[in-house]
Amino acid sequence: MLSKNIKTLRKAKGLSQEELAIKLNVVRQTISKWEQDLSVPDASMLIRLAEELDTSVSTLLGEEIADNKSNDLNVLSEKLEVINLKLAKRNETKIKVIRYSLMGICVFIVLGFIVIALTSNEFMTWDYNDPELAVAGTILHGISWVFVRVAPIIFVIAIIGTILTYRKG
């Protein structure tokens, strides 16, 4: 809600991200991150942002806060904390998806090597005078040749990526 409100109010005021960033003394990428819901402004920046966009903080947050509390930094901090927790949970979910995808790649590669080891490249003993077998055998040989050379590199990268997703903070 906050991200959409910032973008809508900025455009309604006729400001580009760059112009708003200059007024708030931040870089344009900061405004972009706010509008893409990748981060949120802190409480003091939220107040300055509301002033620049000629609106109230409660309007920016998308909720009506009682008038006597509208400038209370504690209330603003609580609202921003909720937004930050949502962002953190979304990021945690993305990291888990990446982690499990990388683990899946590792399992696929291990299974691929098991299949190659168990079949012992049986296609190498086929009668290549038969055109259909020659084409199929050549394709299988090419796939296994590329797999054996590329899979270890991808496996190492996937292991490193999996380990990095467990890194704290």
UniProtKB/TrEMBL annotation:
PROSITE patterns: HTH_CROC1 (PS50943)
Signal peptide limits: none
Transmembrane residue ranges: 97-119, 139-166
Any Pfam family hit: HTH_3
InterPro entries: Cro/C1-type_HTH (IPR001387), Lambda_DNA-bd_dom_sf (IPR010982)
Gene3D superfamilies attached to this UniProt entry: lambda repressor-like DNA-binding domains
Keyword Transmembrane: yes
Keyword terms: DNA-binding, Membrane, Transmembrane, Transmembrane helix
Residue ranges constituting the HTH cro/C1-type domain according to the UniProt record: 6-60
Keyword DNA-binding in record: yes
PANTHER family recorded: TRACRIPTIONAL REGULATORY PROTEIN-RELATED-RELATED (PTHR46558), TRANSCRIPTIONAL REGULATOR (PTHR46558:SF3)
Protein name in UniProt: Helix-turn-helix transcriptional regulator
Native species: Faecalicoccus acidiformans
